[in-house]
Design a protein that fits this description.
heterodimer, A: about 350 residues, mainly alpha, ABC transporter involved in vitamin B12 uptake, BtuC, disordered N terminus, B: Rossmann fold, four-stranded antiparallel sheet
Amino acid sequence: MADQPPESGQDFEQTLGASDTSVAEFKDRPHSALSRVQHLLHGNPTLVPIIVLAVAIVAFGFIAGERFFTPFNMTLIMQQVSIIGILAAAQSLVIITAGIDLSVAAIMVLVSVVTGKLAVDYGVPTGFALIIGFAVGIAAGLMNGLLVTRVKLPPFIVTLGTWNIFFALNLWLSGAQSIRSQDIDATASGLKFFGTNIILGSARLTYGTILMVVIFLVLWYVMNKTAWGRHVYMIGDDKEAAEMAGIRTDRTLVQVYMVAGFICAIGAWASIGRVGAISPQSFYEGNLSSITAVVIGGISLFGGRGSILGALFGALIVGVFESGLRLAGVDVLWQVFATGWLIIIAVAIDQWIREVST
Amino acid sequence: MMTEVTPIVQARGIVKRYGHVTAIDHADFEFMPGEILAVIGDNGAGKSSIVKAICGAVTPDAGEILIDGKPVHFSSPIESRDMGIEIVYQNLALSPALSIVDNMFTGREIRRKDFLGRWLGMLDTAEMERFAREKLTELGLMTVQSINQTVETLSGGQRQGVAVARAAAFASKFIIMDEPTAALGVKESRRVLELMKDVRSRGIPIILISHNMPHVFEVADRIHIHRLGKRLCVVDPKQVSMSDAVSLMTGAMTPDDIAT
């Protein structure tokens, strides 16, 4: 039989009755001003790039003079960032899963070469060539996704590899030759659809610019308003926890890389309109530029944090700096210098914001 | 005196081997409606393994598992979850950067009933918030303003509260809790124990895996003692002392010693 009463084990807790009982209630503690800012940014990570963008536009309006602050120049900036912006949309999806995709620009150029070759050199109807291009983009993403989930390699290594592979394929298919603008006009002018201008006064929007904005809005909806988007954030935040909570994480991850590949393929179509010709050597730095835009946009490289729209603002910030410094007559090297600092400051701010959780 | 009640879970002769290590060695398991059943055992006794076999995280090599008297063969915890079995993992399986609502509905989000929900997959945020708030309020965890707070801004006890609320909200059969108080302070543990009693009083039984004898003896109706890969015995915490339970668990005593 028992040699002691069973409730004796709780004796040491008897003093608890006298102590504060507010253990598991949810309420806000008072904060200092700086910690309030930190919490505000923590809840709204896109606020930083929005503020930086607004300040940059106003500042360059003063520095670079009236030429900067015109509808013509503002819309020109949007045109200039449209392709990198689309790549950044694809990139941000992958980065939110705590991955990275070094192959986005390589996929895009490969798709533009495949589509261009088919439509211009082999006379395949434009629509059909585009569909094959989309399939190539999705297949490239599928390859990345399977290597990441099935072979369990780090995304950095997988996409470093596929960047080279896709680039080599694209040189082989194109014979390192560009497809000239006039040839595209003659046989497959539909490929240049997104280069079409809409002129409103001195503002010049292209369909490609609108496409970029639409892609971001659609992705914002998907990431914030659908279960799939929430799962993508959870996987980036803590993959193991997401798996235990009942999400099929590997399947979702493969889908993320496939969607990224598809967006790159849309970017390929837009890039033909933007550049005019199809060059296998173009956008070689696009991979890194897209990462720059995402990081400056306040999306955490550690995954799970940041709004997809941040990448759009990030791309615009880079565009505004380049345009502003150029119009102010500053040497190109200082544009690169400024971008470098933007990246470092953006990541430093991200680190600081994430300290809220510790 | 004994009435014939069908056990919720009945496992017989479960075996699981990893190479030449036998994690579960012809173990039996029985879990009754309305109870909190504690599973205790020394490190490596296989108490987690047997519970994992029940929820499908581990597929046994032999033996049968009946739930409500019907044989089941789960191949993943997602399948057992579909049957109304919820697990609160030791590490909680929460996403710190996401809100309380997002975490409560992970993997079973509610879509809007209209066109947007049906065709564009739009989530019914308002309904999910209402439901989460209701569940947290039921368990006394809620002062209303902050259902969209991220989980990382919560204390350890609050996080445990969210995980328990999630399990309680969706469990129609039972809840498995793995070391729910291991990472908590004294006051927070107390709160979680109250939550467990609360959940039991709502008719949802709990399997509790724990090392903490005072906690086990406080809430458990029966204690399943696991030793060397099998069930050694089931004891009544009102009949047996903590030190005897520990002696049984570690092999210093046998069940026969208790009976005399």
